[in-house]
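Hmm, how's this folded?
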Amino acid sequence: MNLFTNCVSFVVIMLASVVTFTSASAELTKTVEFNVKPGGVVHTFSEKMKEYECAFTYASQGGTNEQWLMSVGLSDDDGLFSCSVWRPQGKSYLFFTQFKAELKGTKIEYADAYSQTAAGGQTDIPLKPEEFIVGESTVTHKDGKFRAELSKLTVIGRTRHDEL
């Protein structure tokens, strides 16, 4: 299988383990709740697993706090670290003026961002590729192109490089 197929398979497995909350996945995944707070102030929420960390930094406007989730996880061989940040109720009603996800200790292999998540009969709606930038360790909004809608962000990084 190619790298993209492996990454997509890993995301599906990670999301399935989060939904089922199996005891076997408790050692390799962790899901925590946090509030996304409007007001235009920059906030950061982060979670670690072993020596790897996911940090979600954002500023948003409008409404009141929203409950969001962050899941971090490691593949069985510790070769991939994943981070998903999302609003479980689906589409966020907040306007994001900026966002950044940073994976510490990894090199990003896959990332995607969504304006709406699959919840309550809705489907995932991805952001347009020109709305965000994927770097070596960060995923950020693109000034002038990001339309202020964010409901989910998924990032997968390789934790170590295979020796040739």
